[in-house]
């Protein structure tokens, strides 16, 4: 993409809330991981079962990290109301009462793909770059100012579309995928918009000065990189040039 057509990522003067929101959408439209070639392969049925296993096993690291980063974010929030609003993000993934939670639903997928559950949970076979990226996300949320920690979740603005494309594409194109295995994504279709709208509203209200708006843009860019690099790592290891790091998962085919 030419520099001239790229969304501006430097905020030199304070924007209106609407313009800030528009800028965030522009950046996402250019950099969200739905554009990564690995997702195209995954959703169109171009991958083998072993390659899909590699994706699901690595993506487990991200799933497992989400409630950890949200729990530590909550530990930094002084405002009781805001903390209360954030709480369901932890239980959405860890489960609560009758709801098994997103992590269990992800394990239903990895079970259905024939992966050993203990092996998946151990993360032993995950790619080092995926583990580093996920750890960086947790650390970012723990250490950066609250505005940035919250803004780093804004990639979820773009998530419902990718979940829809993935569910439809994978159900249609792989005979080893069924509705039960896709239950994680189906559930996220309702959860992600609520989370994204909340974070967006927070950012619109709290990022008023140019330096605050720059923090928000930086957080979004950081997070887009966290997502993108996981797919780079998967592509290099399992698509081409098939450079699987020592110790990482080896598909059988
Ligand atoms: O499948 C995806 O492409 C995708 C992307 C993202 C995202 O944009 O960070 C999330 C999810 N899924 C997801 O399922 C999820 O629970 C989630 C939480 C968060 C977050 O940053 O708090 N992102 C995402």
TrEMBL record:
Its EC number is 1.3.3.11. Residues 23-232 form the Thiaminase-2/PQQC domain. This is Pyrroloquinoline-quinone synthase. It catalyses: 6-(2-amino-2-carboxyethyl)-7,8-dioxo-1,2,3,4,7,8-hexahydroquinoline-2,4-dicarboxylate + 3 O2 = pyrroloquinoline quinone + 2 H2O2 + 2 H2O + H(+). HAMAP family: PQQ_syn_PqqC. InterPro entries: Haem_Oase-like_multi-hlx, PqqC, PqqC-like, Thiaminase-2/PQQC. The keyword Disulfide bond does not apply. Pathway: Cofactor biosynthesis; pyrroloquinoline quinone biosynthesis. Keywords: Oxidoreductase, PQQ biosynthesis. Signal peptide: none annotated. It is an enzyme of class 1 (oxidoreductase). Ring cyclization and eight-electron oxidation of 3a-(2-amino-2-carboxyethyl)-4,5-dioxo-4,5,6,7,8,9-hexahydroquinoline-7,9-dicarboxylic-acid to PQQ. It holds the Pfam family TENA_THI-4. GO terms for molecular function: pyrroloquinoline-quinone synthase activity. Belongs to the PqqC family. SUPFAM superfamilies: Heme oxygenase-like (SSF48613). It comes from Sneathiella marina.
């Amino acid at each position: 993409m030419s520099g001239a057509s790229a969304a501006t990522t430097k905020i030199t003067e304070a924007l209106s809330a609407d313009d800030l929101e528009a800028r965030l959408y522009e950046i996402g439209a250019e950099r969200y991981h739905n554009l990564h070639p690995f997702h195209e392969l995954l959703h169109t049925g171009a991958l083998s079962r072993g390659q899909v296993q590699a994706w699901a096993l690595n993506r487990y690291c991200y799933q497992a990290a989400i409630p950890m980063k949200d729990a530590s974010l909550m530990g930094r929030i002084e405002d009781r109301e805001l903390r209360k609003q954030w709480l369901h993000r932890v239980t959405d993934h860890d489960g609560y009462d009758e709801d098994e939670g997103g992590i269990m639903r992800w394990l239903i997928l990895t079970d259905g793909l024939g992966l050993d559950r203990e092996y998946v949970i151990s993360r032993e076979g995950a790619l080092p770059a995926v583990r580093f990226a996920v750890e960086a996300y947790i650390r970012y949320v723990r250490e950066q100012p609250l505005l940035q920690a919250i803004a780093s979740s804004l990639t979820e603005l773009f998530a419902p579309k990718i979940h829809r494309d993935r569910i439809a594409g994978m159900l249609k194109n792989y005979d080893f995928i069924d509705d039960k295995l896709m239950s994680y994504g189906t559930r996220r279709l309702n959860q992600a918009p609520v989370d994204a709208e909340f974070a967006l509203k927070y950012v619109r209200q709290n990022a008023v000065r140019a330096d605050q708006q720059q923090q928000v843009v930086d957080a979004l860019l950081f997070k887009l990189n966290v997502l993108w690099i996981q797919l780079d790592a998967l592509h290099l290891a399992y698509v081409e040039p098939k450079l699987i790091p020592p110790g990482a998962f080896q598909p059988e085919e």
